[in-house]
Structure formats: structure tokens, C-alpha cells
Write a structure and sequence with these properties.
heterodimer, A: 308 residues, alpha/beta, eight-stranded mixed β-sheet, three-stranded antiparallel β-sheet, B: alpha/beta
């Protein structure tokens, strides 16, 4: 019997740049959250700052996809929708990438995204689904999306032919949860888990950013067990990113509607975007967060100082 | 009560979308059908499930934009389970609808190089193939009701393969607009007028629809709300008059 050295569980704490440093050109990246809700935007901002190119992105899209399109990182996108969830609703940078033909898309029904992630998480090549039949989804995908015949005939002897949703296998998943420990146990505290566990289940490498990183005992004492969406097997890197989902919302803070509008309006012309980018994107996460606080304070002061 | 507005007539028509729906999830995606679904729930359809539009199922029936005690949890992943179960009736919007009920809310122009980008197909393909779907159009025009849609998000009747039982749950129940109430029971499942709102003429519908509308020769008038319904709309469900922001009041230029 060998005398083993006593080991402890892996501390997965990482910086944003260490995590992003693993991402290579051409990889397929799944991004958690939903629309403008609990998006891992600290990781997305770091990815947008990096030298990585030609990404394929799988997402329930919001400003995550917009910011990556603005940075010219996206070659191909798989999504059920792209929405900012509040006016102007349509993401301007995704719209620009589409109308300029800069990205190839595999648009699909929202339920097909869940189905494709479930197939990948279960290591299956496909799962049958009804959604997609009769719609333009088949045209968006061409030969990449096939149908499958049931081997079990219906009671009347006919055969049901369904969409064979292929597994959405990911090289990397990026997710944001509200509270985590350094080993990758993590919980959401808002009303919806979204699909972050499925994104992690479908991916080779899983990067989790969290507003709070605490001791395991504190984590389990602060939430009910059903809220613990991720366990250690689902996560490779843990990044402490307070307010990291900004300007989307997370468990402890609302969406920053004013800032999201500022983002969308800044996309209107090259000059205003250059200003936005210089101020908020070509800087590290800490500076971003400081400047958001500063921007909000200035904006509030202007409003209060404005004549009645 | 007099002076029923066009918006109030539209709310009644939206409420009637859910007549006989029973114990299913009503998923209205705009203000007018939302008031309609809640009106149905407060009158003839008490077993409808309604949500806050995010993840909570309401026990009570609150006014537009307000909260209420809850009776359950419905995060997005469970919504997809409901869609697949068929126990749902959605009322979606539409950028385009054609004569056979194909609908577009995705984008205008070629698939991989659109002229204008909207949401993408969202849940429209899954909704239309799985459970009853209706549409709400606040401004009935020939730009919306067009010969062919650019991108089929919502599945129309001419896409159905009768040999494939996977299509058997497809049903487009109603289209409610600021001009009238329609369905797809014209010849070969084409767009048909069921009723026109008070003051709306058949000519007005013809002028604002990019294809032939069946049933216009003997079309009736959308029924007036009861006093109870008007009171529920005005005092209980929409005291701030948000319905008038979606549908111009009667008399205003359409």
C-alpha cells in the first residue's frame, strides 16, 4: 500500500484572462443566461478584448452575442432568438452582423436549443423534436438538419417523422451564477435557472463567473438545495466577478436599463461606438465596473441638475 | 355603457380566443391579448393558467403591469415542456402573415443576409406545431397581411404534410386585428373574416389586406362588451388605459 500524500479538493479560482486564454480560434462557445438575463458578460467582455477569432456561438442571444459581433469575433451563430428584452429589443450589433452578411446563422426554435444541449449532455448524436417541422428552420440549416422516422408506427399505421435535433457539442461554456464556492458548486438566487447546467453539460471546458465566491458551508446555508444548479463535475474554472452579469440582471441586481439603452444607442454610428468602446470595452473588468459607477453617477447628477 | 373604444372591442375579441380553452396555459405576448386572457379568466374561463411573463404562475388575476399572489413556478425550461405537452394557447404578434397562416417575426429579406433583423424565429415553430396559436395585429395593413412571408417562423396550413402524424396538433385558431376577427377556415384553410369591429367596412379590410379575404360578403359585427366586461377592462384590468397605446381610440385615423 502506498502512502498517499493527503490532497484537498481542487481550487478552481481563475482570473478572467486565464480562462479566456484557453479559448482558441474557431472554437464553439456556448453562452448561458437568456436574452438580457444573467449573461456572463465579464467573460464575454474579456473574450471581446482577446485576439481570438472565428468563433461559433451557441446562445439564447442577447447583448452577449451583440458585444461579440461588435468585436468581430463571430463567424457562425446557433440561436433560438436574439433580444435585449426591453426597448429597442433588437440587438443593434447582431442586426448589423446579419444585414452585412458577416455571420452565418443556424437559427432555430427556442425549444430546439434546449433539445440540442440535452443531446450533447447525454452524449447522444440527436434527439427527436416536433419543433422546426414546416418552418424556415429547415432552410436556415440546409443539410445540417435532418429528420428521423419513428420505428414505432402510430395506431393508424402511419409513421411519425420528426426533426432529428443534432447534439450542440461545445468546446467551452461560459455561465454566470449568483453564488459559488471555489470548487464549482454554484447556485442561482433569482426566479429562473435558465439553461446554464445544460450549457455546462454540453461542453468540454466549463467557465463559471459568480458575483460571490464563498465557503461551501456558507453556500449551502444561504440557498435551498434545489437552487444548487451546478456541482463540481460541471465546472473547470471559477471566476469571482462581482456585478459580472452587468448590464443584464442577476439574482441580486436588476438589469441596468439606462446603460443597456446607452449601449444600443452607441451602436448607431461609428463615432459614438468608438467612444463607448474606448471607455467601456478596451479596459479591464475592474475599470469597466468603476466607469459604470461613474457613468451612472454623472447621469443621475445631470438629471437632477436639469431644469424642471 | 356607451362609447366602447376600438381597443375595448379588440380586448373582447382577444378574450373570446380562449372560449372553451379549459385548464391550459394562456400565453399572450402583447398588452391587448394579455388583457383579453385575463378578462376571460375573470369571466368564463377561470381555470386558465396565466404567468407574470417571467417565471411565476399567478393565483389571482392582476391588472396589467402589476403583481399578484402566485400558485406555481414556470421557468423557461418548463415552458418548453408545456409547449411539447400541447396544454397551451399562445397569442403571438407578427411582422407578416400570409393567406395560409404562415407567420414571420424573424427578419425581412434573404435568410443569411436579411435587409432587416428582428428577433429570429423565437418559439414560433414549436408553438405552431404543438398547440393552438392565435395572432394579434394592432395595425391591420397589407404590409403585414402579405402574399408571401419572407421567413416562415410560425407554420401555416399549406406546410402541413397530411401523411406525417407529427403535424396533427397544428391549429391556428384566430387572428384578431384592429379591424376585425379572422380565422383560417376559408376554402383550403385560407384567411376568413368572422366579424368586423363596429364601424369597420369590408372595403377597408380589402384595402388593407394583400390577398383575398374569404367570408367578407356576409360578415357580422364583433359583439359589444357587457357592462361587466367593460367595468373589468376599465376599472380592474387596465385602469391606466395601456390598451389605447396599442390600438388607437375609435375615431382616430387608422
Amino acid at each position: 500500500m502506498t502512502t498517499g500524500t493527503r490532497r484537498t479538493q481542487t481550487d478552481k479560482t481563475s482570473t478572467l484572462d486565464e480562462a479566456i486564454g484557453e479559448i482558441r480560434d474557431g472554437m464553439t462557445i456556448g453562452i448561458g443566461g437568456w436574452g438580457s438575463r444573467r449573461k456572463p458578460l465579464a467573460l464575454v467582455r474579456a473574450l471581446a478584448r482577446s485576439d481570438v477569432r472565428d468563433l461559433t456561438v451557441v446562445t439564447y442571444g442577447g447583448p452577449d452575442l451583440g458585444l461579440l459581433c461588435a468585436a468581430g469575433k463571430v463567424r457562425k451563430a446557433y440561436y433560438g432568438f436574439v433580444s435585449l428584452d426591453s426597448p429597442p429589443f433588437y440587438d443593434p450589433w447582431f442586426a448589423h452582423a446579419r444585414t452585412s452578411g458577416a455571420i452565418e446563422v443556424r437559427e432555430m426554435d427556442e425549444g430546439m436549443v434546449k433539445c440540442g444541449l440535452e443531446a450533447a449532455a447525454a452524449r447522444l448524436p440527436f434527439l427527436p423534436i416536433r419543433a422546426g417541422l414546416g418552418s424556415a428552420v429547415l432552410d436556415f440549416w440546409g443539410d445540417e438538419l435532418r429528420t428521423v422516422d419513428s420505428p414505432y408506427p402510430s395506431a393508424d399505421g402511419r409513421t411519425e417523422t420528426l426533426v432529428a435535433m443534432p447534439a450542440l457539442e461545445l468546446d467551452v461554456a461560459l455561465v454566470h451564477l449568483d453564488i459559488a464556492d471555489v470548487h464549482g458548486n454554484a447556485a442561482y438566487t433569482g426566479v429562473d435557472p435558465y439553461f446554464d447546467d445544460l450549457f455546462c453539460g454540453a461542453a468540454q471546458r466549463r467557465f463559471l463567473e459568480a458575483d460571490r465566491v464563498v465557503e461551501t458551508t456558507e453556500l449551502v446555508e444561504s440557498v435551498s438545495p434545489q437552487r444548487m444548479l451546478l456541482n463540481r463535475m460541471n465546472v473547470d474554472r471559477v471566476i469571482h466577478a462581482p456585478n459580472g452579469a452587468h448590464f443584464t440582471f442577476a439574482g441580486d441586481y436588476r438589469r441596468d436599463e439606462a446603460f443597456q439603452r446607452h449601449y444600443a444607442q452607441s451602436a448607431a454610428d461609428p463615432e459614438s461606438w468608438a467612444t463607448f468602446r474606448d471607455h467601456f470595452l478596451d479596459v479591464d473588468e475592474e475599470t469597466y465596473q468603476e466607469r459604470v459607477v461613474e457613468w451612472t453617477r454623472e447621469r443621475t447628477e445631470q438629471k437632477e441638475g436639469a431644469p424642471a | 355603457m356607451s362609447d366602447v373604444t376600438c381597443a375595448e372591442t379588440c380586448v373582447i375579441a382577444c378574450a373570446e380566443i380562449f372560449s372553451g380553452a379549459g385548464e391550459i396555459m394562456a400565453s399572450p405576448m402583447a398588452t391587448t391579448p394579455l388583457i383579453g386572457a385575463r378578462l376571460a379568466r375573470l369571466t368564463t374561463e377561470p381555470d386558465l393558467l396565466i404567468t407574470d411573463g417571467e417565471a411565476l404562475i399567478f393565483a389571482d388575476t392582476p391588472a396589467v403591469g402589476t403583481s399578484a399572489p402566485i400558485e406555481g413556478w414556470m421557468p423557461f425550461r418548463k415552458v418548453f415542456d408545456v409547449v411539447a405537452s400541447g396544454r397551451r394557447h399562445v397569442v403571438m404578434g407578427a411582422n407578416q402573415i400570409d393567406r395560409h397562416g404562415n407567420q414571420n417575426l424573424s427578419a425581412f429579406g434573404p435568410l443569411q443576409h436579411p435587409k432587416r433583423q428582428m428577433f429570429g424565429v423565437r418559439g414560433a415553430p414549436g408553438n405552431t406545431i404543438n398547440h393552438p396559436t392565435s395572432y394579434w395585429v394592432a395595425r391591420h395593413s397589407s404590409r403585414v397581411f402579405t402574399e408571401t412571408v419572407d421567413i416562415i417562423s410560425g407554420v401555416g396550413y399549406d406546410q402541413i404534410d397530411p401523411a406525417n402524424p407529427a403535424y396533427r396538433f397544428h391549429h391556428i385558431h384566430r387572428v384578431v386585428t384592429n379591424l376585425g376577427v379572422f380565422d383560417f377556415r376559408g376554402p383550403d384553410h385560407t384567411f376568413r373574416a368572422l366579424s368586423l369591429h363596429p364601424g369597420v367596412t369590408a372595403d377597408e379590410v380589402v384595402e388593407n389586406t394583400g390577398f383575398e379575404v374569404a367570408g367578407l360578403d356576409d360578415v357580422g359585427e364583433t359583439r359589444a362588451p357587457t357592462d361587466e366586461e367593460l367595468s373589468l377592462i376599465r376599472d380592474t384590468l387596465d385602469p391606466k388605459g395601456l390598451r389605447d397605446k396599442e390600438v388607437a381610440p375609435a375615431g382616430a385615423a387608422r
